[in-house]
Amino acid sequence: MNIIETRDISFSYNTKKVLTNVSLFLKQGEFLGIIGPNGAGKSTILRLICGILKPKHGIITISGHETRGIERKQLAKKIAFVPQETHFALNFTIEEIVMMGRFPYLRAFQRENKIDYEARDHALAYTDIQEFRKRPINSLSSGERQRVVLARALAQEPAILILDEPTSHLDLHHQFAIMELLKKLNKEGMSIITVNHDLNLASLYCERLVLLHQGKVFEQGSPKDLITEKIMKQVYQTEVKVIRHPHKDVPHILLNPKGE
Amino acid sequence: MSKYILISLVFLVAVFLSIIIGPAELTTDILQLRISRVILGVFAGGILAFCGGILQGLFGNPLVEPYTLGSASGAALGGSVGMLLFGTISPLFAFLGALGVGFFVFTIARIEGGLLRDRLILAGVVMSFLCSSLVMVIMVLGGRELYEILYLLMGYLGVVITSANRAMIIAMIVVSGILLIYLYRYYRELDIISQGMETAAGLGIDIQKLSVIIFLTTALLIGITVSIVGAIGFVGLIVPHISKLIFGPKHLKNLPGSFLLGATFLLLADTIARVITVYELPVGVVTSLVGVPFFIYLYRKK
């Protein structure tokens, strides 16, 4: 069953057309990667699916219901969004920030109840940041902060997790840790869409990929189908060598420096 | 909780000081005047600081407040237009002035997908100048005295509450109280907005709707305040920062803290304004003397 479907989505910022007739789907329990060059419209499609932006044309459905008709807070109980970068203008503690994930469940002046505390503690434990829980956010490294943002998203108890380049500013250790966490979540039933610039990470972790190019779906399919020397040349204008990963049956991209 | 008790004690000391300190001897008449000052000081200081805290939260900009956004001066301009037409400063006209200038400032600062932080302040300060000049012109045209203009532009808590205006002032205080509670409802939204608009939207906050609500409600509050005590600057700038230092980043706690500290700060400023020279200075003189260095400090820090 498709938990998310977009049909013929078009979107433009003022006069600049960003997406043209984008149709894609996410199956229940699937780990989908959206890839494509800079400016292909990857972040925009994520924002449209989360309801942060409204499409000019086309329909987005979640479990068969049009998102347009769903109240914002109700949608936030089903879909959690992890933005590319989070600024922390105020120095909240980690547990305060993770508790903010409970916002869709709380009315004004309503105190957090036992369920909210449990969801928060579960999210803290799952992302392995319990030891920091009382610390202010500005005392953490960017890798640790990304875990906090992920924990806040998990506290929303969503069915779908949407991430915009979750590993872009992280070192190797934190990249790996975040991707492994996502894999574990996915194994336990979470449906995931992630935008990834690192094609090798996308190839390793995503079951299926959608390749966006100039605001359109260029191709979709398994990493094996999409990550080929021919398509990389067509879309990224870059000569690459694609090999098979030594331990997994997925493609791996190697760059060829010029003149050697 | 103990922090609230401590700050409440400081507040009570400020109330006590502003009642006993002054050039004149404390007779029954003087006592009545001073009590009416205290009421207006608590009202205005609390509202300005609370609105400053809300606006700083919404814009994620530590320099934003009713005065630096131009809406306080806009309210003074609206009020003076009302005075020219009907002979009295009505809160309605002040509200419209605050709204008009606020809207204009946002239009200047607006870029695709957001607001330019520095441009917001620059536009606000420039509009504030323009409004002050226009207020002078209008008040002089209306045959008003210079001191009235000064009090409107720089704030004055000495409006005497008499039987003639008592009902009106009580009504404005009640309405303001309701509006404050209405704004206070959004404490969680403001916490979340500090982590960026995308995060907020992703958690289900309708930023546009919230901005409109805050924009209109604060303009109403500023209109009401300015129509009674004039445009007092920098209370809304300084106090929310101090409140966050004491009560932490959660708006649930620091917004009421801002109200209490704003009231305290304005009462103390007013006491100083009354006794520092033989003439009574507008209270805005004192708040600016403290506020401008603070503004520069914040500006350099960020």
Task: Write a structural description.
Chain A has 260 residues and is an alpha/beta fold. Chain A has a single domain (2-255), classed as P-loop containing nucleotide triphosphate hydrolases (Rossmann fold), CATH 3.40.50. Chain A is built from nine helices and twelve strands. Chain A has helices at residues 42-50, 72-78, 94-99, 114-126, 142-155, 172-187, 199-205, 223-226, 229-236, and strands at residues 2-13, 16-27, 31-35, 57-62, 65-66, 79-82, 160-164, 191-195, 208-213, 216-221, 240-244, 251-255. In chain A, strands 6-7-8-3-9-10 form a six-stranded mixed β-sheet, sandwiched between helices. A four-stranded antiparallel β-sheet of chain A has the order 2-1-4-5, covered by helices on one side. A two-stranded antiparallel ribbon of chain A has the order 11-12. In chain A, a hairpin with a 2-residue loop joins strand 1 and strand 2 (16-27). Chain A is globular and about 60 Å long. Chain A starts with a strand and ends in a 5-residue tail after the last strand. In chain A, 40% of the residues are buried. The mean pLDDT of chain A is 94. By secondary structure, chain B is an all-alpha fold. Chain B has one domain (2-11, 32-301): Orthogonal Bundle (ABC transporter involved in vitamin B12 uptake, BtuC). Helices cover 77% and strands 1% of the residues of chain B. Chain B has 13 helices and two strands. Chain B has helices at residues 2-20, 28-59, 71-86, 91-109, 117-141, 146-154, 166-184, 187-193, 197-202, 207-229, 235-247, 251-275, 283-301; strands spanning 110-111, 114-115. A two-stranded antiparallel sheet of chain B has the order 1-2. In chain B, strand 1 and strand 2 form a beta hairpin. Chain B is globular. The mean pLDDT of chain B is 92. Chain A binds chain B through residues 13-14, 47, 50-52, 71-76, 80-83, 85-92, 96-97, 100-101, 103-104, 106, 108-109, 149, 156, and chain B through 60, 112-113, 185-189, 191-192, 194-196, 198-199, 201-206, 244, 249-250.
